[in-house]
User: What shape does this take?
Amino acid sequence: MKDKQIPARATKGSDSVDRLVVLPFKKSVEISLKSIRVRFFRSLITTMSLVLAVSFLSFVSVSTDVANGLLSTQEPRLRQALIRSGYDVRPEDTTLGSTPKQRWIVILSLLVCVVGIVNAQLMAVTERFREIGTMKCLGALDRFILRLFLLEAGMEGLGGACVGAMAGALFSLINALFSFGTVAVTTLSWTDIALSTVSAIGVGFLLSLLGVMYPAIVAARMQPVEAMRIEQ
Amino acid sequence: MAHPRNIVRVSKVTKTFQLGKVEVRALQGVDLEIASGDYISIMGPSGSGKSTLFNMIGGLDKPTSGRVFIDEVDIAQLDAYELAWLRCRKIGYIFQTFNIIQVMTALENVTLPMIFAGMNNDAAVAKGIQLLELVGLGDRFRHKPSELSGGQQQRVAVARALANDPAIVLADEPTGNLDLTTGEEIIELLKELSQERGVTVISATHDFKMLNVSDQVVWIRDGRIEKIENREELSISVGQIGVRE
Assistant: This one.
């Protein structure tokens, strides 16, 4: 064991790479996947607010797409139907955007969702203090912990956002079918729908990462000795 | 080694904690030298500064003043990477509460430090199985911690502590949460490993069973070293302790 000298700062070159502490990316993914699987119910709750917020976002934007599809037919009957179901269509409009009110409600719901994620992830970090501390005692660096939490939240976020966006879009289409009949589906632009869904997924994914940032930093900065002091 | 070198050297270490407005002087100038390959017990009542000293030796905490050398390297001089390296390669930790990572199997717990050390997965798994066999859990490496008894979990912890062939194994009250027989088994295991592998075992404890196997016992009281006894002197003083308490 005499050959195991602590690497001096000067020798951190290529010859001592194997002596540094590492956690391969593949292994990090494996650990975070396992962590999600074991705590599946817990992850589900963490992700639930995201699913709801993203499905709302996707519902609103797909509904707008449907309305635009109907409007593009230039039929006065459909225009009337739109106005009847609550859209503000002025006579000169050829396309519809989301109204400021809608935008505010969506932003608000996303904001509430981020706060929910921060809260849930902080709880998760507290629950796992001991695990984090143990890993640090085994030689884990701050960034391993950070990476594990970000990966976990990223995967949860992607999964949750996908489910949410799909559900929102589907619900919006069903809603349109009931309100306007099959014409709603035949006139709409599927590219727009896809675009709306994908952007909703993207927003959800980013929000999930944003929400976990602070809890992950708290976890990563923790001193191992503090973790050991906490009673189970 | 004809002349055993000191693996741990503690020099004039003090540690002060700020608890609200009160200053607590947990350590008040401790000097200690631990020879490589020894089995050391640090004994003392709770609140004596035992755990604090223990954390210093483990590189988990830094002294307020004084120096702690591990293998002649001053740990206060190390940056975060070097400390992580030290914890990963040089020191194996065993805790009172086992601290097995609950979401991983026994084998994954043992291989984790080897992965951190950069070993490839197959080699780590092979060595992990070998270590689990060594601690008597050869048939249980696929089990989750929740499926293992306390004693078995502590065995996993011992295997994990040995994963990177550390020079020092630090055991913080390793028998504190175990019943009498299981505790004795763990102590026996630690002693065997210390002798066979030449690992320095340092344990903080108030378990008198630990005394019989120790090469040296360090008694701590009120943040100072009260006395250091070698094994030969022990049997008498154990008797005295029995009378005193």
Observations:
- Chain A touches chain B through 38 residues (CB under 8 Å).
- The CA atoms of residues 58 and 200 of chain A lie 6 Å apart.
